[in-house]
Every structure is written in structure tokens, then in C-alpha cells.
Amino acid sequence: MVTGHGRIALFVRVWLPVGFFLVLALFPFYWMAITSLKADSELYNQRLMPLMLRHPTLQHYVDLLTQTNFLLWTWNTMLVAVVSTAISLVLGTMLAYPLARMRFAGAGLIAMTVAAIYLVPQPLLFLPLADVINRLDLGNTLTAVILTYPTMLVPFCAWLLLGYFKTVPKELEEAARIDGASRLQTMRQIFLPLCTPGFISAGIFAFTLSQNEFLYALIFLTKSSVRTVPVGVIAELIRGDVFYWGQLMAGALLGSIPVALIYSFFVEHYVAGLTSGAVKG
Amino acid sequence: MSIRTESLITLARPRRRDVSFAGWLDREAVFSWLMMALPLLFLAALVGYPLVYGVLLSLEDRSVGHTGHFVGFKNFITDFHDPVFWRVAANTFVYTIAATLLKMVGGLGLALAMNQDFWMKNLIRALLLLPFIVPTVLSTVAWMWMLDPAFSVVNRILIGLGVPKPGPSWLGTPLLAMFSIIMINTWRGLPFYGITLLAGLQTVPPELYEAATIDGASGWQRFRFVTLPLLKPIILIVTLFSVIFTFADFQLVYVLTHGGPQNATNLFATYAFDIGMGAGQLGLGASVALMMLPALALLIVGLTLYMRRA
Predict the structure, then answer these.
(1) Do A259 and B127 touch (CB under 8 A)?
(2) What is the CATH number of domain B81-309?
(3) Which of A3, A208, A234 sits opposite B137 (nearest CB)?
(4) Contact state of A116 with B137 under an 8 Å Cβ cutoff
(5) Chain B residues with CB-CB distance to A263 below 8 A
(6) Scanning A43, A244, B216, B276, which has its CA 20 to 30 A from the CA of A113?
């Protein structure tokens, strides 16, 4: 594949395109960061070169944490993401294990239904779901989103885990069966401990998707004290026609950090999940 | 190996069917359905039921605070006579097609650029995925600020490069607003294409390139006749995935433009939200959302069948 030689060729072939994509991908984050660190006097001064930061200040962060419910929103977001991820992993495993290991009539149909449900987008469901949540009297409770997020996360986890389960060799389970273990014991004590990497991949994805969710949270959570970060930022930091850009960017950056941190610890799992999800399906 | 163990298991199994409760539980079908019962019930209650209920809702004149009556296809007829509805349909198709094409071409470029050996490759790959990881709403707010009418940094850079002041009004003019949402959707989705296609590229055996080179194929010919055919299945799956979620996109448009100016960026999802939630006309809103179904159903069935085969 290599055709060019020398430093110039390397630069043209590698660093020019990679650098282009890198700047494109990262500039908005750089812009978020320096905006959030500028004092308003610097931020709204048209005569200063905007790409540089002259007098960094944490004022916007202090305001964000003391004058808004941002910390509470972060807590809500985390709670919802962790609980709905846990529910989805458990329910997803309960779907994926039989589909990966057992032979029974209807297995193919169930597998296809689960895949199809994963592809049903939220905008198709939000109006009837809003009515269901209202009738259950769950409006403005975190339960509303903890119940509805798994509607997209369960099929997703099931599909990803199904792909992973199929790559785990069967021999250990067969040995356990011969030794007289029941199917449930075999699954819990022999099989599931082998699947930790699969659970990490599915867990990170589910966690990221819950942090990213907006539509259901927007509809079901209208009281400030129960809001999640995305909804809180949109609904309360944008006040009428006045934008508090410093605070907004501080909020956007802080809201992105949990996902980015978790992602940085498990990049390899994430990439593996991403590619197996689409490639192997 | 596995064949032999399986035959051993059949030998070890008792001939008579176990009639005890534990034996009944151990049957593959019984165990499977019991295990799947809870998740299936959950999905039936919170996906299946709302889907059916949404269809019924679209046939009623239901609005917030009023009980609805069955009105047949009246809501759908209202949609067909609504010029905004047709604008929304056209917008959704333009948005989906343009953003998908850009992501596909750009993603392929990104994958090809990344499929080389260079310094800090893993770190760079991790950084490139950031736009895809970060919650859409939060990165969209950053773009909103970057395209702000008074303080747009994009315009400041453009002016620095010689574009006359005050620079384009990105979110204020219909055509540019559509262009902006397409570009931001591309910005967010490109890494997904790039990294997935990169994984595909890495499975292409190097011998194929060597053989093609020996046969005298040029760089372009190797790409066209070796790389592209082998990548085709992955490109197809990734594209179908992304088409489905771009077609039903809500967050980006809701945050950036609210569908404006003059409905120039209103999509099915945001329009259904406006009618159902904003104006409280649940029945009519449900009918707008359901109009996504024919195109989506086609895509979903196609993709599911394809994944099943693969």
C-alpha cells in the first residue's frame, strides 16, 4: 500500500488528512473550554482575537454550580443512567442467553423482533408513551425515564450480547451439564462469568445512550428538581432570548465529562462493541 | 471436538423423559421461554402497546384535557392538506440523504486515512470518536454558540479569511439553516462511519493487495476493485443504521433551530412534537409521527433481514 517516501510524503499521506479530521472533531470542544473560562467582558468584546484566552476565570463554573440546579441534574442523570443500564443488562441477558444457546421453536422470530424493536426510533413512540406515563401518574418522577429508557436499551443490549455470547465456546457449559448442573446453574455459575468483556461493552453503550437521551426526559421531566443534564441545560440555562454563553459552555463541558471519562477507560471495549454491533450483528 | 462432546451428552442423558418439576424446567423450550418471559413482557408493554396505541390515537381527535372520538382518517387528510406537512416531508428527505452521503464519503476518507501506521494512532482514534460519544444536546449547544448571529467564531474566522462582514447568518436563513443542521449531523456521525469502516478495512487480507499490485493494478484500481467490494456489506449495514436514526432525528434540530426559520428545518419528529406537545393535539401529532412509518418500516425490515442473513 505504501507508495510515497520521505517526510513530505508521510506528511501528505498521513498527517494532512488525519490532522484535518482531528481539528474538525476537536475544535468545538476547544471552543467550549475557552468560552467557559473567559470573563464576560472578554467574551463579548468583538475587538479581541476570539481564539485565545487572556485572563482565565472560573466564575462561570462557580455561578453554574451555585445559582442553578446543575449538581442535582448531574445526580439525576447518573442515577437514571446507572439504574436503567443495570435493568437493561439483566433483561438483555435474559433475552440473549436462550437465543444464543437453546434450540426452541420461535427462536428466529424472537431474535428478529428484538432487532426490529431496537430500530424503532423514539419519535414514533413518544406521544402514546406520554399518555401511558400520565395515566400511570409517573409524570415528573425519575421512574418515568428509568422505565422508558430500557425500551431502547434492552433490545440493544440483547443484540450486542447475543453476538458476544455466540463467540464463547460451549465446552465448559457442556461439562457442567454432564456433572449434573441445572440450566440455570450452568448459566449463572459457568457461562456469565466468562462474558465480562461483553457486559462491559454493552454497559458502556447503554450508559452513553442514557446520558445522551433527550426526548423522553424533555417530555416527562418538567420540574427543575427532577431534570437530567441535557434537559436542564436547554430548559433553564437558555432563558428567553438571553443566552449565558459562559455558563452554557461550562455546563456543556461538565455534562460531557462523565461519558468521556468512562469512555477513556474502556476505549477498546467501546470500539470492539461498535464494530461487532454493526459488522457481526 | 464439539461434535464429540455433544454425542457424549446424548449418551449420558437418561432415555426416559424426566417427569419431575426440575426435569421439566430443564427442557430447552421451557427454560428459554421462562427466561425470556420478563423482558418480552416488558417490551410488549412499553413498545408494543404504545405502537398500537399510537395508531389508535392517530384515528382520534384527541387533544390535551379532552376525551377523543374516533374520526377515521381525518387527521391524515388534514396532514395531506397541510403545506407545512409537505415541507416537513421534503426537509426530512433532504436532510437524511445529504447527511448520509456526507457521512459515508467522509467516513470512508477517515477510515482510509486511519488505516496507516503512525505515531499515537490509538490515542488519535479515541479522540476522533469524541463527537460521537458526547451527548448530542450538549455538543449542539456548542455549535449554536459557534454559529451565533453576533459572536459566531466561524464567521470571525471567515472574515479573517476575507469574507465580507458580518458573514453569513447561519441559522437565520432557510437554506443556510438546513446546511448547518446537515453539517452538524455529519460532524457527529462521521466518527461512527470512520471507525466501523476502519475495522472493516483491517480485515482485508494484505495478500489481496499484493496480488493486485503484481497484476499491475494502480492505487485507485486497488481501492475500486479490492477494497470497495470487500467493504460493501459493512457500508450497507452502517448506512442503513444511520439512515434510520437520521430520518427520525429530533434532538439536534429541536435544540439548534426549533424547526425554523419558517419551517425550513422542521423534520417529522420535531413537527410531530410541535403539534402533539406544543399545541396539545395528540391525535394529529400521532398521525404526523406515523407518517414516518412506511419509509422506516421498509428500512427496518430490510436491515433486519440482512442482519439475519449475515
Answers:
(1) no
(2) 1.10.3720.10
(3) A234
(4) no
(5) 126, 129, 133
(6) B276
Beta bridge partners of B63: B66
| ipTM exceeds 0.90 | no
Q: Which residues of A touch B126 (CB under 8 A)?
A: 263-264, 267
As averages over each run of 10 residues, the pLDDT of chain B (310 residues) reads: 51 59 84 93 94 91 81 87 92 95 93 86 87 93 91 87 85 94 95 88 86 87 87 86 90 91 93 90 90 87 75
Q: Locate cell 485565545: which residue?
A: A52
SS3 B59: coil
- Asked if B135's CB is within 8 angstroms of A255's CB, the reply is yes
Enter the C-alpha cell of residue A36: 467557559
User: In CATH, which superfamily holds the domain spanning A68-280?
Assistant: MetI-like (1.10.3720.10)
First to last CA, chain A: 30
Domain ranges in chain A are 7-57, 68-280
How far is residue A39 from each of residues A247, B47, B103, B140, B233, measured CA to CA in Å?
10, 48, 37, 22, 51
Tell me if chain A has a CB within 8 Å of the CB of B34: no
pLDDT in tens, B88-115: 999 999 999 999 999 999 999 999 988 8
- B298 has a chain A CB within 8 A of its CB: no
CB atoms within 10 A of CB B8: 13
Task: Encode pLDDT of A57-80 as tens digits.
Answer: 899 899 899 988 999 999 999 999
Chain B residues with CB under 8 Å of A218 CB are: 254
Q: Record the pTM.
A: 0.88
**Residue B125 corresponds to which cell in the numbers above?**
482514534
Which grid coordinates are listed for B297? Answer: 418500516
